[in-house]
Amino acid sequence: MTATTPPIALTIAGSDPSGGAGIQADLKTFTVLGVYGASVITALTAQNTFGVTGVLKVPADFVIAQFVAVTSDLPVAAVKTGMLADVEMVDCVSRLLRQWGPPHLVVDPVMVATSGDRLIDRDAVQAVRDTLIPLADLITPNLPEAAALLEREIAESEEQMRAQAEALLQFGCRAVLLKGGHGSGAEAVDILATAGGITRLSQRRIETSNTHGTGCTLAAAITAGLADGKPLEEAVARAKDFVWMALMAGAAQQVGSGNGPVNHMFSVHKSAGIA
Q1: Which CATH superfamily is domain 8-272 in?
Q2: Is the pLDDT of residue 274 over 80?
């Protein structure tokens, strides 16, 4: 039998011991979408569905060691970055990615957890904007993250979202997916901005408090699609559908007593005949 190599995606992010976000959400997403997942851990967090109670940053030299170990052995097809807690970590990861040159890079500029707890130093926001975003094929900020990167007020209309998405393109990335999940209304609208124009993506808004890890999951699903050879627009559309279904499945279960996670495993449960 001839062995084949599956598509491989790498996540560079923080760990969530409760399993709903961060590295754990990324690896679950990669797996159920048929992509082999590798990881470089940038921080350990103490968190659950109620919030974050502690962050332990991984030393930069050990982040480098993890990165070299993975990329020197595995043919990584796409990379996603998540929680990079301070300027030193942003600079470290940016330097590694610039030197290595991944085939595809998705930057999720994680700043605040679903619980409202801040996950990045304020002075690291500029480092993300100046050193990491210019390397990205796609960035996936939510409304508060976009406002922080642009030093503007949070967008309150689709017109403002379009303007902010186009402004974010000027930082040097090749595409922006501005997520509207923090907005209001019957639809959850995302704006995809590229040099070719604006695409509006919408889904019916799901009323649920089980939204822990949605941003990580969406960026990971896009990364999985890129690793699997999908064009960017198709990878984004498929990822948005995946997150919507994970939210629907997550609304029907309760993990923890706070803001529970989406259900990454809905497709596995369905195929296995598990209710």
Answers
A1: Ribokinase (3.40.1190.20)
A2: no
